[in-house]
Amino acid sequence: MGVGCWRNPLLLLAALVLAARLGHFQRWEGFQEKSTSMKNMNSTLKFFIETYNNASNDTYLFQVDKLLRSQMQLTTGVEYMVTVKISRTKCERNGTRNHSCPIQNKKKLKKSFICDFLVYTVPWMNYYQLWNNSCLEA
């Protein structure tokens, strides 16, 4: 074994440092408004609204009414910074979770929020984590 076995890894390390100094590695560019996979976006929106409904004390469930803005950033997974309009549905919390809950149309029961949230996901592992969330009445 001697010094010879260390020569190649040290050369590789020196080449990597030199390439990084010369800017040959693309840096993460931060959040970008890029077209995202609808499959990933739909699962992210589903995760958000389920998390919102689980934390809410409202009698009725809410659903995403409209996607207003979506930005993504690649890190060790994917971070989505999203703005949505959510609205109260006719489905009650303790009722059966129906995927086709119509939006509430009775004037006294109508309620909508504009929500900004940040979700970290590793979609290929089906892992989601809500990092930030704020909603204002619309």
Automatic annotation (TrEMBL):
Domain of life of the source: Eukaryota
Listed PANTHER family: CYSTATIN-LIKE 1
Domain Cystatin: 26-136
Gene Ontology terms describing biological process: G protein-coupled opioid receptor signaling pathway; signaling receptor ligand precursor processing; transmission of nerve impulse
Gene name per UniProt: CSTL1
Molecular functions per Gene Ontology: cysteine-type endopeptidase inhibitor activity; cysteine-type peptidase activity
Lineage, opening ranks: Eukaryota, Metazoa, Chordata, Craniata, Vertebrata
Keyword Disulfide bond: yes
Family designation: Belongs to the cystatin family.
Protein name, as recorded: Cystatin like 1
Segment forming the signal sequence: 1-19
Matching Gene3D superfamilies: 3.10.450.10
Keywords: Disulfide bond, Signal
A Pfam family assignment: Cystatin
